[in-house]
Amino acid sequence: MYLAAIRYNLAPLELKLCFLGQLTRSCVRFERVDSLKESDWMMAVQVCCRGNRLALLMLSRSVSHSSFSEPDSHTHTPVPFSRSTIGTFFQERPLLTNPFTQDALLQAYLQRHLPEQQVQRDLRLFGERLVSEIEALGRQCELNPPVLQRFDPWGRRVDRILTCDAWTRLKHISAQEGLVAAGYERTYGEWSRVYQMSKIYLFAPSAGLYTCPLAMTDGAAKVIESLGMPIREAFERLTTRDEKRFWTSGQWMTERRGGSDVSSGTETVARRQQDGWFKLYGFKWFTSATDADMTLTLARITDRHGRCTAGSSGLSLFLAEVWDSDGLCNGIEVQRLKDKLGTRQVPTAELLLDGMSAQLLSEEGRGVASIANMLTITRIHNTVCAVGAMRRITHLCREYARKRTAFGKLLKDHALHVQTLSRLEVETRAAFLFAMEVCRLLGREENRSASDRDTLLLRLLTPIAKLYTAKQAVSVVSEGLESFGGQGYIEDTGLPSMLRDAQVLSIWEGTTNVLSLDVLRSIAKSSGSVLQAFFIDVNERLLAAEASAALRPAVTSLNTSLSALKRFTQTAAARPTEALELSARDLAYSLARIYMGALLVDHAAWENATHIDIYAALRWCDQDLCPVVSRDAAGCYDPQTAAMDTALVYDGLQA
């Protein structure tokens, strides 16, 4: 302290010392603060010990500015960046406000299709809860990922997956808000899934990836319901609003030999017990939400000689509780938790099943057929979460653009920046309408009000919506981070995790190519009926919008693309299988873009639509809506092109 006084010519001092604790191994920091009067000054010396403020020493006296002189200097001129003074400007961060009241498209969509005051009120209150409570919980889950406790303090093998309190709290909130239950209560009839998924859409970006166990829980409930409620208690726990009874479910399908190819990749076997239950033995390579209460899994039933049937016909579906009454694993050894690029909040593990007790859920040999409904549900959840991520980043970007100044004006006043954001907005709007349409079709099917066309469209559009919105989400979130400059790359802003988490969307529940081939299968199995339903539906939407002069360019573009797509599909049947597979990805993209364009036009033709809705439809239709035709004309699916693709990829590779 004496040295500080000498340095600032403070020999005659009045010292006021307030001790807050014992000072040991202390470090000293000095800061000068000028008052409004030139003659007054104050210097504060903060004495700190190991980073904790322990004492505050106030040195005060009335002197002239000349009293503050550096050694060998006559006058002290304040310097803006000196010692602990780091400047006066701090960028305002983007604030999350009620995501429901800030979402014009969601509100308009519900006004048109589900104008229930209770729905509006519930979503508004839920939006407030997201901001005041859920957002912070999700961030805590990101910062406190799960850990594996293999042994207890006395050496007993326990294999406990420890998650943070926020993860548990999100489970309780999910039950309270009916994030699974709403889909099965069916309060709003065929619109119940739209209501449920509207909440998931708002919840997903704030939820610390708790949407992952919710997706699998919803899928498990769907399977049990579709099989006639063979295990009613499990269904009731999966769909309850009672947080004390609520269960989540895992989905343990992936093994070392196969990811999406479960038919040939599943090695797990099931041995029948005398009480009718089974013991499962196998290795599950990728099990998400491993801390769930129960799980569905595939296995091959062995006969008394240990033999089992290969292929999909040998697979059966089982239900197992993960933990026993003592809180220990049910015949499971957790080998390790996966170290993932993103979704770090979700416990994902490699599991050895060593006599896991399980109940047969499906008929023997009908396991793959039984999980079809589950895949529909989880792929729709994936789609809705992708759109939720897109909406969140666009909301944050536009909010930040009103606060960040660059080159003399706010970002919102830079036309190029706003143009970029508007392109993200168009992508997000198209994706939202696509997701909600698939949810509507699912709701109609479950309410038993679906037409044959609705059923065919649901089969075709579910994989298309999942694969296309997943790709959109990665692109939109990546571009959105760029809007924050360097801050978009800084971890403690919470922004980079949005991109890491988005990347999984194109991998979970089937990669882009796997789902593109699934689209081809749906066309082949229905003998083209799904495509016929698609063409009829798009045509009807475009006919309804033809009266709008403002929408005419979009309608014309869509009609042209639809006609070209029809011609392609008519000739595609005569092509070799290899050529069809080569076109699968571009075909799926073409179906997605045309359908999304039709939905945008349909929404813009609504009597209460705005000029913004019309503009969004026009901008969407500026792009190549039918890339499969463009690339077919360029010879991309010719046999010789495939050979050249191989040569290009492996050029220079040494054997």
Task: Report what the structure shows.
This protein is α+β, with helices and mostly antiparallel strands. The protein contains 21 helices and 15 strands. The chain has helices spanning 2-7, 104-113, 117-143, 165-176, 182-185, 192-203, 211-226, 232-238, 262-265, 367-370, 372-401, 415-446, 452-482, 496-503, 512-525, 529-545, 552-572, 577-604, 611-620, 627-633, 639-649, and strands at 14-19, 26-34, 40-49, 52-62, 147-151, 157-162, 249-252, 269-272, 278-288, 294-301, 315-321, 332-337, 348-360, 405-406, 409-410. Helix 7 (211-226) runs antiparallel to helix 11 and helix 18 (577-604) runs antiparallel to helix 19 (611-620). The longest helix has 32 residues, at 415-446. It is globular, with a radius of gyration of 30 Å.
* Uncertain ranges: 1-71
Q: Specify the overall morphology.
A: globular
Classification by helices and strands = alpha+beta
As a percent range, the share of strand residues is 15-25%
Order of neighbouring strands in the sheet with most strands: 8-9-13-11-10
Instruction: Count all strands and give the number.
Output: 15
